[in-house]
Structures are given as structure tokens and as C-alpha cells.
Amino acid sequence: MGAYILRRLLLIIPTLFGIMVINFTLTQFVPGGPIEQIIARIDGEGDVFGAISGGAGEFANDTARSSAQGSSEYAGARGLPPEFIEELEREFGFDKPPVERFFTMIWNYMRLDFGESYFRSIGVFELVAEKLPVSITLGLWSTLIAYIVSIPLGIRKAVNDGSTFDTWTSGLIIVAYAIPGFLFAILLLVLFAGGTYWQIFPLRGLTSDNFEDLSLIGKVLDYFWHIALPVFASTIASFATLTLLTKNSFLDEIKKQYVITARAKGVSERRVLYGHVFRNAMLIVIAGFPGLFISVFFGGSLIIETIFSLDGLGRLGFEAAVARDYPVIFGTLFVFGLVGLVIGILSDLMYVFVDPRIDFEKREA
């Protein structure tokens, strides 16, 4: 198993390289890059370069002011000096060929140097490290709650297949699955966050303003108080899918011959379900863990973070894409890809933990 894990870890390197190649290539064909964003800001907002670090920001301000002297027109309306554009290109590295810029970025990544945001005076690594805990909080808690609720519920539905309980719970699950996550999040805000009815939960953030002054128990309660609605909103769709997956998996196993034999020998129903069926039925459920976590971590994080005003990685990546802040875009993509690949390896390890008979090395041989 050790050799298999080592091979999987080594495969992370070319996989991440491929992800970065594809995304870097795509950005070369997307109109409205960082230079165009800055020119648009000059046209529409004047002196907006306080957030840009380095000589290009100062040069942009000086050029914009000198071009605007003696006229009420915007600088961009008369055209910007060529030296201004050249200075911006040198500042952002666009004076170099794309291939050279790409391999420079990869070399910096190998040294854990993710560069600095174009429009914020902070490094990408610091930005990602600051926002990552919010997205991981949503992903882990949502996935954990989905498994804790869905597995027992799916088992009971399988045991009582066709009963009134199974019919009613299936109806509720289908309704929950049909409601889009963002719509359910808005509904929770309206009902429980002071929108129209009750002010039970806070509207934004992961902690209160006086979090540092609270006791240890107070901090824990404050944390769960803040994440209750976002986690609930991001869990609802995955909960429905996982429940039906668990039910169908158990139904397939319950009908097999070894279960009938165990019951004929007088083995208790609880031991049949959790001692024999559980391990085999859970394999397909565990296989869905990476997909479930990544779907919450990738897709759900942006929507939930935006609605509940959570400053996480999904929201950071979206804002960077809109502003064409390439270092932040590539940094968040790198983190998302790395997390997804590591979760895939952990899923294989969970396979072996649930069923030791599985040996990935023999399967590859």
C-alpha cells in the first residue's frame, strides 16, 4: 500500500501541472486583461491606483494627472501615452512571452512563491491562507453532517423499503433536492436572519465582533451560531443524494445470498446490517466522499459565501476572475486542485479501512 500511495502522491505533480497549463492557456484568450482593467479604471474612476503596488501604480497616477491638466476630459478619452502602457506591461510581466511567463510562474510555485495580487498590497499566499479556513469550514461540516444524517436514514429506508416511512421521506428528500442551494439560503436568511420574520442567527461572518473577549465555551457556541445557516444551506442537496445512494446500496446487498444465509443461521438483524452488509454497502458511499466534498468546496462555496457574506476562497476566486487578478486566480486554482487530488487519495485509504480485502497494488499489477 505504501508504494501505491507514493505513486499517487507523485502523480499530483503532473496533474497540477496540467491544470495550470490549461488555465494559463485559457486566460491568454480571455479579453479584458489586467492592463485593460487599469485603463478602464482610469477612464471611469481617475486616481484609483492606491491599491496597486510598485512603480506602475505611481507611474499611472502621475501620467493620469499630467494628461488631465488643462482639460476636464478623462485621460483615457484622449488616449494614454505609450510609455505608460509599456510601464504597466513591465510591472505585470506582460512584456515577456507567454511561455516564459508560465514557466517563471511554475518555478516560483515550486518554491512556494505565489506572487502578489495585482490590485491588493498583499501576497497571494497570505490571501489564500486567510480565506481558506472559511471554505474548508463549510466543506467539512457540510460533508460530515450529510454523512451523519444520510447513512442512518438511508439504512432505515432500505430496511423499510416500500413502507409509509420510506414513501414520505423520499418525498421530502426529492423536494429538498429540487430546491436550488442559493434559493434555500435566501429562504433561511428571510426566515431566521432578520429578513422578515425572526432574528435568530447572525447575518454575516464566522464570528462576532467581541469574539476575542469570549470564554472558550462562548467562542465555540459563537462559532456554531454563525455557521449554522451556511452549513445547513450547503448540506441540503448533498444530503438528499447521499441518502438515496445509501438506500440503494443497502438494498442491493440485502438481497444477496450471504445475507439470507446469515439470517437463516439466526444472526440478529442488527449484526446482519452492521456486521455484514455495512462494509460492502458503504464502499460506493465512501467512493462518493471526494465528489461530495469537492462539490461543496468548489461549487457551493461561492454561492453560500456570497449570500452569507463570508470572506472565503470561493468568493476570493470569483472577485479575482472579475478583476482579472491573475496571480490570485492561479493561486486559488492551484489550491482547489491540490485539495481535490489529496481528497482522492484519502478516499482510497478509506476504501482499505472499510474493507481490508481491497489491495490497490495487486489491482494495478
UniProtKB/TrEMBL annotation:
It is found in: Cell inner membrane; Cell membrane. It is a multi-pass membrane protein. Keywords: Cell inner membrane, Cell membrane, Membrane, Transmembrane, Transmembrane helix, Transport. InterPro entries: MetI-like (IPR000515), MetI-like_sf (IPR035906). SUPFAM superfamilies: MetI-like (SSF161098). Its main location: membrane. The keyword Transit peptide does not apply. Residues 132-351 form the ABC transmembrane type-1 domain. The keyword Membrane applies. Gene3D superfamilies: MetI-like (1.10.3720.10). Pfam families: BPD_transp_1. GO terms for biological process: microcin transport; transmembrane transport. GO terms for cellular component: plasma membrane. The chain crosses the membrane at residues 9-26, 134-155, 167-193, 223-246, 281-308, 328-354. NCBIfam families: PRK15133.1. PANTHER family: INNER MEMBRANE ABC TRANSPORTER, INNER MEMBRANE ABC TRANSPORTER PERMEASE PROTEIN YEJB. Belongs to the binding-protein-dependent transport system permease family. This is ABC peptide transporter, inner membrane subunit. It comes from Maritimibacter alkaliphilus HTCC2654.
